[in-house]
Amino acid sequence: MSSIKINKLEIENVKRVKAVKIEPSASGLTIVGGNNNQGKTSVLDAIAWALGGNKHRPSEPHREGSAVPPHLHIVMSNGLVVERHGKNSDLKVLDPEGNKGGQQLLNSFVEELAIDLPKFMESTGKEKAQTLLQIIGVGDQLAKIEYEEQQIYNQRHAIGQIADQKDKFAKEQDYYPDAPKELVSVSELIQQQQQVLARNGENQQKRLQLTQIEDRFRQEEVNIDLLNKQINDMQIKLAEAKTAHEKTRSDLVVAEQSATSLQDESTAELEKNIAEIDEINRKVRTNLDKDKAEEDAAQYREQYDMLSGQIEELRKQKIELLNKADLPLPGLSVTEGELIYNGQRWDNMSGSDQLKVSTAIVRKLKPQCGFILLDKLEQMDMPTLNEFGQWLEQEGLQAIATRVSTGEECSIIIEDGYVAGETPQHNNTTWEEGKF
Known about the structure:
Oligomer: single chain
Radius of gyration: 54 Å
CATH architecture of the domain at 6-110 and 366-419: 3-Layer(aba) Sandwich
Protein name: AAA family ATPase
Shape: rod-shaped
Domain Rad50/SbcC-type AAA: 8-281
Order of helices and strands: EEEHEEEEHHHHHHHHHEEEHEHEEE
Structural class: alpha+beta
Coiled coil: 210-251, 283-324
Strand order of the largest sheet: 2-1-4-5-6-7
Keywords: Coiled coil
Number of strands: 14
Helix content: 40-55%
Distance between the termini: 30 Å
Largest sheet: 6 strands, antiparallel
Low-confidence stretches: 426-436
CATH superfamily of the domain at 6-110 and 366-419: P-loop containing nucleotide triphosphate hydrolases
Number of helices: 12
InterPro entries: P-loop_NTPase, Rad50/SbcC_AAA
């Protein structure tokens, strides 16, 4: 089914309009120009009311000072004739065969946003994106992927913070390269000390034995002297004494040799370690904490990198999903919940691009609707206006717009409720049904 457009519209006594007849171009821009307060916007309001229903009825539709009630007559490209007239401005819709219809028939091809485009353009960036995603049928899938991406992103963020904290903690910790790798046990040091003291005690016993033997040897020499004086009387005792003395000499040699090789072990290092055990263990614990923090940080970094890979994969899925979608405009996409057109977010788009995007989305919402209404295009400069008009023609779309201007770009100019240059013929007259 081809899109439906407005072939002709006739308006009388609506707001500031007295009597206006317009035959818009089938495609491209039809600009209703004029100065302020002449009735330009009243033309668009009348069309919206005629096609969109009473929810678009102006609060004061009856032109001030007119005895004739509002009358609207619109002929659509599919042959439908839409009228509102009479005291209550009742709606009348006739098809080419003369069959009657109503608002429901109009709603089947008139897109709400086409007659109220500011509603879309003034919505938030996320609302615009959601509108687009829903009409191309990927909103739910994309929402699921984005939810999963956000969950993983939050998890990765938390892990990254922990890894940073671990790194920071490790860097702030002192390190003692001369400290042992494990905590020192006091009981083991005391046991080692006791073993050394026991060995030193044995050495002391041997030294004492040497002293005793030396004393005995000296005493025996004294005895020998005495015995020598009595040698004649004590030959037997002398021989026995010599024998004993030789035995003692032999013991002395053995004792001297044994004592000479003795060397006491120092307990100073052990005593120092015992005295400094708390400080040593403090350094060991510090080193262990630093090592553990570095190890933890490395593990969290691995988790962070793994989650980054998952996020990247989900983003690829989003891109693939959007690339496969039937988007209404080349270069249009959604990134991080925002509309993007040719790489630009909404607030960075030109006025022409914003209108292109809005119009394309409206057309996608209801392809049968081939027209849009645009108010206040005076904000566009001429190059931008021409560019937008050319795009509309290229796309086969019809736009009826207003602009505060009396320049050549205007299709018609409204002056005091009439089309400038036309002789008013129906001021304060009564409409004939179906005629201007």
